[in-house]
């Protein structure tokens, strides 16, 4: 990226800087790819996984907001409650106590945020409690997911849709 910027402004990159940052320092992407498993790499290449941290090493947040359209908020909230409840035995038995407490706190925050997203959509006149039933709803429900994420990140640099494969709407919405 730096070399491209230098070239664009008819400047030459100091050879010593280039040597330091190519031979002695690890780039963001090198660090990320070092920890990817072969399965993650295959899913990334096929487009099954999007929003991985290698795509934007510049601090941009890439979320996957489709779950609101696919499942509806009520299902997602029910799932979060089940996740929260499933940790009860670990909490009571002191299993990985610090990690269990932290995870329960995060899940509780996610459950609360889903409820707030449902309230936000209602203020716009939409009921996102169930899955989207058509393409227009799928896009609208997905956009509510994006808006909620932007709100929670105070407008940090966030991508709406970075790939053509993001929404697949051949006439129906996938449901489980």
TrEMBL record:
This is PFL domain-containing protein. GO terms for molecular function: formate C-acetyltransferase activity. It holds the Pfam family PFL-like. InterPro entries: Auton_GlycylRad_Cofactor (IPR050244), PFL_dom (IPR004184). One of its GO terms (cellular component) is cytosol. It comes from the Bacteria. Residues 1-176 form the PFL domain.
